[in-house]
């Protein structure tokens, strides 16, 4: 009787263990696996987070230079002001240019009057030549004077265009919507041609420059032009904004071995200005040889952890920590990324 009870207990325990193993396998199969379905997996490189810090700046900047000489008549914008729709910043006195334009127009009217008279003279002498009442040379002389007057009128019109352009260049303009960051001229000040008047920038879109290593640059390319920037000083606890990869320099700095990449932010900040601290976080492969494996692939023997290769060979590994989605970060001199192991151990 005791033997029968003992056998019954052994059978019951075996059924219970089988039920537990089946339940565990079903739960494990129901969880999302980063390697997909199957009993064999390839070790993936473990990732580490790299945190980079940059500061915002204007997308475009420009130095404002005087193209003409003259006395400053008006300054329309100060530091921090946004340029209006007319783009006006600084106006120089145009008195002498205005006088030259008026004189030019008077000269044009005088030449036009002479041309009208010479046209009549040419027509009159054409009739006289037809009646043999005047010499052909006299007609040719009047025609030449008419042609020379027309050339003179064209030269005056060209001079008028030049004066109008000089008059326009007495006004220094900045693209509409830009913001003044520096002002170096005051009303009444004499300004020479080429004098520095100030600086303006386009803060409607902000750039955040970073210098990236080749590994970080590869991680940025995988973002496909989209990234996230953290602004820790915005608000009470900071904000995270969508950013775009604006520019990637094709050059390579041989000293730092870095690549220049600029991210851009167009909205979401309380103040669009330079100097805002931005934090950029990237995931790059761990260079120490650490790999990522399913936790279910690890077996414990002799107070050590082991992975089992496809051919059944066992490799001892060191557990560093646990990763996402039931994975673990392990390291071993005998394990490299791409090596194939069994994903689950046989019960």
Describe the structure.
The chain has helices at residues 2-30, 95-130, 136-168, 214-221, and strands spanning 40-42, 44-45, 47-55, 57-65, 70-75, 88-92, 171-173, 179-183, 190-191, 196-212, 226-231, 239-248, 259-265, 277-285, 291-294, 299-301, 304-308, 314-323, 327-331, 340-342. It is an alpha+beta fold and 347 residues long. Among the domains are: 50-59 and 202-284, Elongation Factor Tu (Ef-tu), domain 3, CATH 2.40.30; 95-168; 288-347, no CATH class. Strands 3, 4, 8, 10, 11, 12, 13 and 14 form an eight-stranded antiparallel beta sheet that branches. Helix 2 packs antiparallel against helix 3. The longest helix is centred in the first third of the chain and has 36 residues, at 95-130. The chain is elongated. The two termini are 32 Å apart.
Summarize the structure.
Helix content is 31%, strand content 35%.
Give the helices and strands, then pairings.
Layout: H1 2-30, E1 40-42, E2 44-45, E3 47-55, E4 57-65, E5 70-75, E6 88-92, H2 95-130, H3 136-168, E7 171-173, E8 179-183, E9 190-191, E10 196-212, H4 214-221, E11 226-231, E12 239-248, E13 259-265, E14 277-285, E15 291-294, E16 299-301, E17 304-308, E18 314-323, E19 327-331, E20 340-342
Mean pLDDT: 85
Give the termini separation.
32 Å
Structural class: alpha+beta
**Strand residue content:** 35-45%
Q: Rough shape?
A: elongated
Q: Could you tell me the CATH topology label of one domain.
A: Elongation Factor Tu (Ef-tu), domain 3
- What's the architecture of one domain, going by CATH? Beta Barrel
Number of helices: 4
Residue share in helix = 25-40%
Q: Any idea of the CATH class of one domain?
A: Mainly Beta
- Written as H for each helix and E for each strand, in order along the chain, the element string is HEEEEEEHHEEEEHEEEEEEEEEE
Largest sheet: 8 strands, antiparallel
Radius of gyration over all CA atoms, rounded? 42 Å
The H-level CATH homologous superfamily of one domain, spelled out, is Efflux pump adaptor protein, beta barrel domain
Instruction: Show unreliable segments.
Output: 1-34
> How many strands appear in the DSSP assignment?
20
